[in-house]
Design a protein that fits this description.
The chain is α/β, with parallel strands linked by helices and 432 residues long. It has two domains: 12-46 and 319-427, Aspartate Aminotransferase, domain 1 (Alpha-Beta Complex), CATH 3.90.1150; 52-315, 3-Layer(aba) Sandwich (Aspartate Aminotransferase, domain 2). The chain has helices spanning 12-19, 47-59, 70-89, 103-118, 149-158, 175-181, 204-213, 233-236, 261-264, 301-317, 319-338, 367-376, 389-394, 411-428; strands spanning 28-29, 32-33, 35-36, 97-100, 136-140, 161-165, 186-192, 217-221, 240-244, 255-259, 277-280, 285-287, 344-345, 357-361, 379-380, 382-384, 400-404. The strands form five sheets. A seven-stranded mixed sheet has the order 4-10-9-8-7-5-6, with helices on both faces. Strands 13-14-17-16 form a four-stranded antiparallel sheet, covered by helices on one side. Helix 2 packs antiparallel against helix 10 (301-317), helix 3 runs parallel beside helix 10 and helix 11 (319-338) runs parallel beside helix 14 (411-428). It starts with 11 loop residues before the first helix and ends with a helix. The structure holds pyridoxal-5'-phosphate.
Length: 432
């Protein structure tokens, strides 16, 4: 463990102990101990999370908010407790958390609230959500496609204009341009907190303040921050935030939307059907208040219970300590890659704090070959464009290799990865 970490930081012994909670980390891949550096794509799950889901499924499994029987009542209680746990984790009130299947669905939910309001759904109260020609949606060139395409589609449906905050040559957001782009016509600003390619923590406070100054709403993509940093949606003063359970020790199939209560109260729903209504006739329906209004259909109860167990696990370790540990690993990743001749670290010149995630290109070696070579040594990384083609295009590459850590990652794993990258170059015989 880095000597620079203070006494409250995660110690080596503690990390080795908590790794025992993750059986998959003890497995071998291609004859080598698994070095899992793909937590940015999906994280591993501790036994406490697997046990919580199994316990629910073996003792209480039933549909929530409906049945009159005991199991349904108890399942409803534990489902709503899970919501409260996740709400607390991000600084929200219980009824400000809407369950979705992932962050992608959560962003689409908000984008469709805008387009439904724009065709008159929701009545006068939806003024802030109404878009038409002359209105502007602002996002950035850095976004994951999940926080870009829903806004492209929204612009196409409403006639609004999509404006994109550009990146500088290093890959950082050009904040001067952002200040000029966010203006009186801006209705919504959608920005990522942490880049899923560069690992930098964006100075989103400035964008949030600029958006609010002109009366625009802000959606924060917290997919790569909620799992790795203490996140307080109220302190950040965002209107919406989204995250996915599978990136924060939880299961796939569940994510969450945070929305300010007064906004959720007026927003028209995205998905409609059962479980989100009060009265229905053959021609119209009255909707429940939020969050149920946005949770159509039978809910993912065991996944919610497991996600609550995941955030309990993270909270017990302590998010500030996880953030410290990963910042140190992230720096070690960048320094190690930087020291290898022939490696270009994307965003290396950006002077911003980082999480434990870095992407790189080796001119002359395709990222798929890099990933394959590392996999032969049991090292799992992500290759490709990481659902961020505009960012890669801006940096002049079509793809990259990404290593991403989590609380269970060790310095030894980062070092093994760095050695693996050096060996890759040796093997393919490429030097800059
Ligand atoms: N936003 C960011 C920054 C991401 O990293 C991801 C996933 O990689 C997403 C959005 C989409 O998450 P999901 O596929 O879980 O909906």
């Amino acid at each position: 463990m880095s000597a620079s970490l203070d006494v409250t930081s995660l110690a080596d012994a503690e990390i080795h102990r908590l790794r025992e909670d993750f059986p998959i980390l003890q497995t071998q891949v291609n004859g080598h101990p698994l070095v899992y550096l793909d937590s940015g794509a999906t994280s591993q799950r501790p036994l406490a999370v697997l046990d919580a889901e199994r316990e629910f499924l073996t003792t209480l499994n039933s549909a929530v908010h409906r049945g009159a029987h005991t199991l349904a009542a108890e399942a409803t209680e534990i489902f709503e407790d899970a919501r409260a746990t996740v709400a607390r984790f991000v600084g929200a009130d219980d009824d400000e958390i809407v369950w979705t299947s992932n962050a992608t669905e959560a962003i689409n939910l908000v984008a469709y609230a805008f387009s439904n309001a724009s065709v008159g759904r929701g009545g006068a109260a939806t003024e802030k959500f109404r878009l038409g020609e002359g209105d502007e949606i602002v996002t950035t060139e850095m976004e994951h496609h999940a926080n870009l395409i829903p806004w492209q589609e929204l612009a196409a449906r409403t006639g609004a204009t999509l404006r994109v905050i550009p990146l500088d040559d290093d890959g950082a957001l050009r904040l001067d341009d952002a200040a000029a782009l966010i203006g009186p016509h801006t209705k919504v600003v959608a920005v990522t907190h942490v880049s899923n390619v560069l690992g930098i923590i964006n100075p989103v406070e400035q964008l949030i303040a600029a958006a609010h100054e002109v009366g625009a709403l802000v959606l924060l993509d917290a997919c790569q921050s909620a799992p790795h940093l203490p996140l307080d949606v109220k302190a950040l003063d965002v209107d919406f935030a989204v995250f996915s359970g599978h990136k924060m020790l939880g299961p796939t199939g569940i994510g969450a939307l945070y929305g300010r209560r007064e906004l959720l109260e007026v927003m028209p729903p995205f998905l409609t059907g059962g479980s989100m209504i009060t009265t229905v006739t053959t021609t119209e329906a009255e909707y429940l208040p939020p969050p149920q209004r946005f949770e159509a259909g039978t809910q993912r109860v065991s996944q919610a219970v497991a996600l609550a167990a995941a955030v309990d696990y993270l909270s017990a370790v302590g998010m500030p300590r996880i953030a410290d540990h990963e910042a140190a690993l992230g720096q070690r990743l960048v320094d190690g890659l930087f020291g290898i001749d022939g490696v270009r670290v994307l965003g290396a010149g950006i002077d911003l704090p980082r999480v434990g995630l870095a992407s790189f290109d080796i001119p002359g070696i395709h990222s798929h070959d890099v990933g394959q070579f590392l996999d032969d040594q049991g090292i799992a990384v992500r290759v490709g464009h990481h659902c961020a083609q505009p960012l890669h295009r801006r940096l002049g590459v079509t793809s990259s290799t990404r290593a991403s850590t989590y609380l269970y990652s060790t310095e030894d794993e980062v070092d093994a990865f760095i050695e693996g990258v050096a060996a890759t170059i040796e093997f393919f015989g490429v030097r800059s």
